[in-house]
Amino acid sequence: MDALIVCQVPLFCFKPRSNTKSHIKTKAPPVPSFYPIAVANPRPKLSYRRDVLSNIFTIHTKNPHIIYREIQRLASQKKLNEALALLDFLDHRGIPVSVTTFSSLISTCIRLKSLDAAKRVHAHIRVNGLEKNEFLQTKLVQLYACCGSIDDAKGVFETMPVTSVYPWNALLRGNIMMGRHNHREIITSFAEMQSSGIDLNVYSFSCLIKSLAASHSLRQGLKTHGIMIKNGFSESYVLKTSLIDMYFKCGKIKLACSVFREVEEKDIVLWGAMIAGFAHNKLPWEALRYTKLMIDSGIQVNSVILTIILPVIGEISALKTGKEVHAYITKKKGYSTQLFLHSSLIDMYCKCGDMISGRKVFYGSKERSTVSWTALLSGYIQNGRLEQALRSIIWMQQEGFKPDLVTLATVLPVCGRLRALNKGKELHAYAVKNGFFPDVSISTCLMMMYSKCDIHSYCSRLFNTMENKNVIAWTAMIECLIEGNFLHDALDVFRSMQMSKHRPDSVTIARSLSICSELKALHLGKEIHGQVLKKSFEPIPFVCIEVMKMYAKCGEIKKAQSLFDSTPIKGSMVWTTIIEAYEYNSQPEEAMRLLKQMLSDGNRCSPTHFTLTAVLNVCEQGGFADDAIKYFGLMTRKFKIRASDEHYSSIIRLLTCLGRKEEAECFIQMRSSLNQG
After folding, report:
1. Is the per-residue pLDDT at 31 higher than 60?
2. pTM for the whole thing?
3. Which of 499, 524, 502 has its CA nearest to residue 513?
4. Residue 459 contacts by C-beta under 8 Å, 6 or more apart in sequence?
5. 121-176: pLDDT as tens digits
6. Any alpha helices (H) in 453-502, and if so which ranges?
7. No. of H helices and E strands in the chain?
8. Contact 407, 370 (CB under 8 A)
9. Phi, psi (rounded to 5 degrees) for 500
10. What letter would DSSP give residue 221?
């Protein structure tokens, strides 16, 4: 038998006896190295008598609180394996464990979502005779629910007394934390609480409302609001905030504002919910207006509000306002050192096109992080500096920062746009080495990158090896096949998706309709149109446009016109599509009639460069040289559309074909000056 030596640690230091002669005959269980234990050593230098270790364990038994604190410290540091090993050690020596210690371990298991560790902790709770402790039972219900084991959670739940609200709340909260936003399941649990005579509290309603907000379940949300008022919780600040969040996520701005106005004394959390809600619903100016109203009411913005409004400022390119916010952050000493605010400032400046200020914030920061590097990379990409974005990946690692999932997802599309296959493969290898698979976002980014680099076999391989496909992954695979012009294969993938548990969303439907347009697959196109109607996707502009294109390219111009007429809000792209539809069907006169209708005083719809392209194609088809010159001048002067080389080429071809060479020469000279500029 191997001899054993005793490890020494800072907490307990024991000096070996000089006259030790005998060897220890039994081995202790494996435990962390920071406690004095017996560890096998093939080449021992020292040995100890049994009574030495007996003294050690006696001290442990007499003062177990030191061990409890050590377990709690390890749990707080997420060192779960070491904490559990020490728990095994205590169990082996028969030392009882406190409820507080188990609570710390359960909290760590919840953060790490470790089901195996959860079951080990649960086993130790049984061994310690604490399986009927209501506090620990409640924590276990939440733990199992957070780890995705609802059956285990319900198993613990069913052994508990039904009179307490806390285990019910734990079950509801666990479902939400796990991302289980099936509101029907949570509503069923809530109804059981009511029927069981449980006294509901604020936390019960808060969990339910959060689930409804995530599921965009407006109807159930309105019912819950009514039940909340009936039960006397209408004055709760917490629930008012939750209701505002729910109504905003359901797109009901007026209802959210109505709840907000009911509150007399508004705190910063309530204001923050309103500002975040406007930002979520793409109402940036309202978000900024409410921020100003909050300041005028005497409440100063905090770091949370700042992280909400800085992206909003970037979206509307309000550079002056952004600089004012930057000055405020600099003035506040506590905020000037917060890394996430620096990252938000970098992002804001880059979105406003001010890369110089963005770089100043980045390089002026005493500390950097992966998030701030990713913000700078994203800024380079937004401002067209793609090569510099790729180089920044190297500089980032040279400073000791490892790219994370978001960094890779930001940079991989750049590799595709630049066709930088080797760099893309390096990033792929990095993702494999650092265990980023099977993350769906990384897999889909890699698929798109390989597709842009014309390596379509890699796309299929990545897709087929993906364990947990989602709608985005299916859509990405269809997009990759369209990119490679494998249209029939793309339709096969679309059919396979319909047979899977995932259902096509509006983007998938739109891409499939574009395939039907190219293949002139009218029958399949009609089937997909049926899905559009069934899922109420017709109000979505890009879906409506693809349906119109499909019918137009399949020769069904009347159906395309009917769809156009039934569209309540006609934007420039909808008008452009119907003009193109008549061009596809060789009816240039009708297309020009629609153009005049679009530009009439009754329609406040400005054309785009896509509209100019469609108009010039129609004029070229019909031989309308005068109209081509007229609308070219109108759109470039009145609507400030910058004419491209393609636009000049189209009008030059038309004038040349009609023998109007002098006018064609003028446009050739204009194109030359454009290229020189």
Report:
1. no
2. 0.73
3. 524
4. 447, 450, 451, 477, 480, 481
5. 999 898 888 888 888 888 888 888 778 787 788 788 778 766 677 777 777 776 67
6. 456-464, 471-483, 487-499
7. 38, 2
8. yes
9. -85, -175
10. H
Residue keyed to tokens 């019960």: 204
**Which two structure tokens, joined as six digits, stand for 180?**
């289980």
Backbone phi and psi for residue 519, each to the nearest 5 degrees, phi listed first: -90, -5
The model's confidence at residue 20, banded by pLDDT at 50, 70 and 90, is very low
The lowest-confidence range among 178-182, 226-230, 476-480, 579-583 is 178-182
Element holding 39 (H helix, E strand): strand 38-40
Q: What is the CA radius of gyration of the chain?
A: 33
pLDDT at 32 over 70: no
And the tokens for 231? 């039960």
Is it the case that residue 21 has pLDDT exceeding 50? no
pLDDT digits (tens, 9 = 90+) for 410-456: 999 999 999 999 999 999 999 999 988 878 899 999 999 999 999 99
Backbone angles phi, psi at 61, to 5 degrees: -65, -40
Task: Give 583's contacts (C-beta < 8 A, 6+ positions apart).
Answer: 591, 614, 617, 618, 621
Quick one: CA dihedral 111, 115, 117, 122, positive or negative? positive
Distance, CA of 165 to CA of 168 (rounded, Å):
5
- DSSP letter string, 264-279: SS--HHHHHHHHHHHH
Identify the CA nearest to 109 among candidates 83, 70, 133: 83
Q: What is the DSSP letter of 45?
A: S
* Token code pair at residue 427: 């990033």
pLDDT number for residue 44: 36
Torsion of CA 370, 375, 378, 382, to 10 degrees: -170
**Nearest residue to 299 (alpha-carbon basis) of 290, 308, 307:** 290
Distance (Å, whole) CA 380 – CA 386: 6
Degrees to nearest 5, angle at CA 137 with 134 and 140: 155
20 token code pair = 């030790």
Q: Which two tokens stand for residue 647?
A: 């636009």
Backbone angles phi, psi at 642, to 5 degrees: -85, 115
